[in-house]
Amino acid sequence: MDQYEQNLSLLVDYFQKGCKLNCFQKLGLEVEHFLVKKDTKESVSYYGEHGVAEILERLKSSYPRAYYEGDELIGLYNSDYSLSLEPAAQLEISINPRGEIRHIKSIYEHFVAQVTPILDEYGYELVNLGYQPKSCINDLKLIPKKRYDYMDEYFKTSGTKGANMMRGTASAQISIDFFSEEDFVKKIRVAYTIMPAIKLLCDCTPIFEGERYKKHMARTMIWKNVDKKRCGIIPGLFDDDFGFLSYAKYMMELPLIFVPNNGEPVFTKEQTAAMLWKDREFTEDDMEHVLSMAFPDVRLKHYLEIRGADCMPFPYIMGYLALIKGIFFYKTSIQAILEDHANEKMILSAEEDLMEHGFDGKIYGQNAADYLKRIIAMAKENLRPDEQEYLAPMEEIIKEKRTLADYYEK
């Protein structure tokens, strides 16, 4: 077996180790927020007096672990969640997987209660939107993290909106478990099948570069123009032989942008993992880095990460969690959606229609609202009454056929 085949095998083994061996499923949640000034809605910089670095320093004593880039504090950790920074100092909370939505809610509320007094003191607030409410990307400095410098340089030639993605966007991402390769294949196909519906339902991007965005799903528009090689739909997703090996091959041929070397990133531009590891074997750290450099709408690690939703006010994030739980925790829902027999062309066509027409668009030939009602009803049927209540804000969006971005104008 040559080195390429050996490294492919290691990646496949890595995915196999991600298969959960019990039936207790969990949800993980990541929420990216903008830190802005209350009066102007302008973004708060990482740097300077009362910057994001200072806010992290004030929080540090409440966390058992901290993460630095050189001398710069850029992350905090405890047993429930981590705080980290996106490229332009968007503050992300990553909540460790939990089986109960109410536990995720409690953890998130603890984080907000902890950070809010400091923000109030400085005249700042957390904003849950899909794009910067006021500041434009030319006004935003990257945090002192070398990987972001390399990504920023690479994306200048891979597409037209890389800088917007890095500096301007914020998302709400949910991770789910898989139990086998077969289960992985079903769940990733279902996630992509409902992805156009998720992107419309979770469209919370009213502003783009300081002005009202006139169409729909602006964050989707941005991601479509970042880097076609590493974003969007996984190649071969609906092929009969798609599985762990297919995903591993996709990762091996992806330009990596940079690789860590003795703790320091090295710019590799267009070189792929197959090129960079042609004479050596992957370590687990190598594989985790390689997997982190793909940004498709659904990403595989030791879990499946569903990445299509904008950041939203937290009641809507709770509704999104309930929707994902009600679909992906139950075989009947998974099978029902697979029977739609969607394919890549159909998914892309639905996205384009929704980006142009919003709730007046169609998903696989169905009116968007009708398709979403079906998906919500499917999830609701599987959830407990206390969990069903979380869906109410989403049901209101569908009833009124107005996205959160539309509400902004209202």
| The CATH top-level class label | Alpha Beta
Number of E-state strands = 17
Which fold name corresponds to the CATH topology?
Creatine Kinase, Chain A, domain 2
The tally of domains stands at: 1
Q: Which band does the percent of strand residues land in?
A: 15-25%
- Helix and strand content put the structural class at alpha+beta
Helix fraction, binned, reads: 40-55%
| Low-pLDDT residue intervals, each spanning 5 or more residues | none
Dominant shape: globular
The whole-number mean of residue pLDDT values reads 97
Distance between the termini: 62 Å
CATH architecture: 2-Layer Sandwich
Describe this structure as you would to a colleague.
There is one protein chain. Strands 1, 2, 3, 4, 5, 6, 7, 14 and 15 form a 9-stranded antiparallel beta sheet that branches. Strands 8-9 form a two-stranded antiparallel sheet. Helix 6 packs across helix 13 (331-338) and helix 12 packs across helix 15 (368-382). It has one domain: Creatine Kinase, Chain A, domain 2 (2-Layer Sandwich). It has 410 residues and is α+β, with helices and mostly antiparallel strands. It contains 18 helices and 17 strands. The model has no long low-confidence stretch (mean pLDDT 97).
Topology:
Elements lengths: L2 H15 L9 E11 L14 H8 L5 E5 L2 E6 L3 E5 L5 E8 L2 H22 L1 E4 L18 H13 L3 H7 L2 E6 L4 H13 L1 H7 L5 E2 L2 E2 L5 H7 L6 E2 L11 H9 L2 E7 L2 E9 H4 L7 H9 L2 E2 L1 E3 L3 E7 L3 H15 L2 H8 L5 H14 L4 E2 L2 E2 H15 L2 H4 L3 H9 L3 H6 L1
Parallel strand pairs: 10-13
Antiparallel strand pairs: 1-5, 1-6, 1-7, 2-3, 3-4, 4-5, 7-15, 8-9, 11-12, 14-15, 16-17
